[in-house]
Design goal:
The complex is a heterodimer of chains A (114) and B (118).
Chain A: E1 4-7, E2 10-13, E3 19-25, E4 31-37, E5 44-50, E6 53-56, E7 64-67, E8 73-78, E9 87-94, E10 104-105, E11 109-113
Parallel strand pairs in A: 2-11
Antiparallel strand pairs in A: 1-3, 3-8, 4-5, 4-9, 5-6, 7-8, 9-10, 9-11
Chain B: E1 4-5, E2 10-14, E3 19-21, E4 24-25, E5 32-39, E6 46-52, E7 60-61, E8 64-69, E9 74-79, E10 88-96, E11 107-108, E12 112-117
Parallel strand pairs in B: 2-12
Antiparallel strand pairs in B: 1-4, 3-9, 5-6, 5-10, 7-8, 8-9, 10-11, 10-12
Classes of the chains: A mainly beta (114), B mainly beta (118).
Chain lengths: 114, 118
């Protein structure tokens, strides 16, 4: 009964070759997030959507883009992956507006850059 | 400055014992929410417990309880009667007030790796 599904679970890409990670949700939540988590580090927010409104974090590199064609789906595009982009990428969703709203996470996509 | 600080990179506990995972936070907001998540080796973040800044009682959820000391800005997670399945990474996280458009952000600490031993 997975509610936030990320595909693929593992992705190997070549240095500089564009790659897309996908996330879908069955919760009908307005807000979707993309986090990058490197080994032994805190998950770092890259950007989030509130419905179709896109909110980019100030320190997210331009190399990272996102698309949300509808409520259920969100994509993370890495235009030219570098070795430093190898990480776990976590998608999450939440309802908007209240402090006690927890975020629901997918199982993540582990990206390897070769 | 770090908003969420978890000073214990790794912790060991014996099965059936209790363990406390530390978390301190930094915010100037009066309204905020504190969360604990568990991340097993499979990668998924699992929500454990929530504490609101205005909640007078410490939150509890089964074997999990939150020792909330607002003046000290700490929100430690207590796991009672540890089980082997509790072995995982544990993250403390915070939502701050001042929400615009509902896209309030969840900021995470660096986590504590908990290992439960027989």
């Amino acid at each position: 009964d997975a509610m936030v599904i990320q595909n693929p679970r593992y992705q190997v890409t070549q240095f500089g070759k564009p790659v897309t990670l996908s996330c879908s949700q069955t919760l009908n939540h307005n807000v979707m997030y993309w986090y990058q988590q490197k080994s032994s580090q805190a998950p770092k927010l890259l950007f989030h959507y509130y419905d179709k409104d896109f909110n980019n974090e100030a320190d997210t590199p331009d190399n990272f883009q996102s698309r949300r064609p509808n409520t259920s789906f969100c994509f993370l595009d890495i235009r030219s992956p570098g070795l430093g982009d190898a990480a776990m990428y976590l998608c999450a969703t939440s309802r908007p507006g209240t402090l006690n709203t927890e975020a629901f996470f997918g199982q993540g996509t582990r990206l390897t850059v070769v | 400055a770090q908003k969420i600080t978890q000073t214990q990179p790794g912790m060991f506990v014996q099965e059936k014992e209790a363990v406390t995972l530390d978390c301190t936070y930094d915010t100037s907001d009066q309204s905020y929410g504190l969360f604990w998540y568990k991340q097993p080796s499979s990668g998924e973040m699992i929500f454990l417990i929530y504490q609101g800044s205005y909640d007078e009682q410490n939150a509890t959820e089964g074997r999990y309880s939150l020792n909330f000391q607002k003046a000290r800005k700490s929100a430690n997670l207590v796991i009672s009667a540890s089980q082997l399945g509790d072995s995982a990474m544990y993250f403390c996280a915070m939502r701050e007030g001042g929400v615009t458009g509902g896209g309030n952000k969840l900021t995470f600490g660096t986590g504590t790796q908990l290992k439960v031993e027989l």
